[in-house]
Design goal:
By secondary structure, this protein is of the alpha/beta class. Helices cover 45% and strands 16% of the residues.
């Protein structure tokens, strides 16, 4: 275990415990479940096995009243053995799909495994198909492989591909990268408009026709901490990133808004004035949950890359004590502002060796462990309260109006544990 020197001012200077062992995560295909809702003119064609098809069906369900915007091209044994020309089969399946679904404007070929496993170079396939079907349908590809990615990295890979394909644009503009639930996105745009920023571009774009480009006068800010590849892509395209704590809770949201406002020459006092009412609502909502969280010892296992900004929210706004903050990958540029707001004390861990980490959980006996589904039930059986990390990805948790709900997601397992304890007595 890494012990932080007491002289540190924050976790930004803390040594990082790096682990490379067995890990427990969902695969990147899971991101399709929320991405297809944000891009209704798109279709996600997963190139993979029947297992991948079953995952999507069980995780996302089947839409009854509309044709789905995702599907699986199943690789048979003859494909994997190289006995069939899989490239020709992909071409045929894509032609069949696009002839039947003329509404598709963006087609994503999503690899369920590395190219070495599926024996296919999907980037070449996308390039070939794009030459055939563009401009009516743009064809992209990205990897959603669970061997290579955690489940939020599916979105990162998708947005990185989109950003790389954006046209050059030298206009002075703001792009916000990261998918949000529609209601949260509307709140964000209303806040930005109120402080004087109304012409805001979004990545992912809702439709292929949305007017968005990128260039040296483009300023990009992020609402999701797992967009490391997207960050690197927009920098390579010449865009200027805006770094800030992520907009979780009252403090994080205010800091994020002020960072964006400052880049465009807007006085912080304008942000304070515009956000006075929603800040008060957020503080009140979090205060109602703080009594359940203050002083509670929390252990965050690596799962979604949301862990560092959530740890900042738990410690700074909810009064929780952090034992360990694990994250699958630590992207310093994106998470440094949040790390700087976390007081020294917790172990900061990157990667995972699940058995060693479970040993640390059992030794610490935290009040709450935030972890994946596969680890929650065993830990609950050992008498430890847990929070499913995946619920934090699928729930609206950003910005002021969701601050109380976010705190409640952590408070509810503790309340349930307290009630069970009373009942047992």
């Amino acid at each position: 275990m890494t012990i932080q020197p007491k002289s540190l001012s924050s976790c930004a200077q803390a040594p990082v415990l790096k682990e490379r062992g067995q890990h427990e995560v969902f695969c990147g295909l899971t991101a399709i479940i929320w991405l297809h809702r944000k891009m209704p003119d798109s279709f996600f064609l997963v190139i993979g096995s029947r297992t991948c098809a079953h995952l999507l069906q069980s995780a996302a369900g089947v839409m009854i009243f509309a044709e789905p915007r995702f599907g699986t091209a199943i690789l048979e044994e003859t494909d994997l053995a190289g006995m069939a020309d899989a490239q020709q089969e992909i071409d045929r399946e894509v032609e069949r799909l696009l002839s039947r679904r003329t509404d598709i404007r963006r087609l994503f070929l999503v690899g369920s495994c590395p190219s070495e496993v599926i024996k296919l170079d999907l980037s070449k396939a996308a390039e070939r198909l794009n030459a055939i079907h563009a401009p009516q349908t743009q064809v992209f590809n990205f990897s959603g492989s669970g061997i290579e990615t955690t489940f939020t990295q599916g979105e990162d890979a998708c947005l990185s591909t989109l950003a790389d394909g954006l046209p050059q644009d030298n206009a002075h503009q703001l792009i916000i990268a990261g998918a949000l639930p529609d209601v949260v996105q509307d709140q964000m745009l209303d806040l930005l408009s109120a402080i004087g920023l109304s012409d805001v571009k979004l990545l992912p774009q809702r439709t292929a026709q949305d007017n968005i480009g990128i260039g040296p006068n483009t300023h990009v800010t992020f609402v999701q901490p797992f967009l490391g590849d997207t960050h690197d892509t927009v920098l390579r395209r010449g865009a200027k990133p805006i770094y800030a704590p992520f907009p979780f809770g009252e403090l994080g949201t205010t800091a994020w808004l002020k960072a964006v406002a400052g880049r465009f020459g807007i006085d912080p006092a304008v942000v304070d004035r515009v956000t006075e009412a929603p800040r008060a609502r957020a503080r009140k909502a979090v205060a109602a949950m703080r009594e359940d969280l203050a002083g509670k010892r929390v252990f965050l296992m690596p799962d979604s890359q949301l862990e560092i900004p959530l740890a900042r929210f738990l410690s700074r706004e909810c009064g929780a004590e952090l034992i360990e903050v694990g994250t699958p990958f630590l992207h310093r540029s994106l998470t440094e502002p949040d790390l700087s707001e976390i007081a020294p004390g917790p172990v900061i861990a990157e990667g995972q060796d699940v058995e060693k980490q479970l040993d640390r959980v059992r030794a610490a006996r935290p009040d709450l462990t935030v972890c994946g589904l596969g680890l929650a039930n065993p830990l609950e059986a050992e008498g430890l309260a847990t929070k499913w990390a995946i619920e934090l990805v699928f729930s609206p948790i950003h910005f002021y109006e969701q601050a109380g709900d976010l705190a409640g997601l952590f408070a509810r397992p503790l309340r349930r544990r307290a009630l069970l304890k009373v009942a047992a007595e």
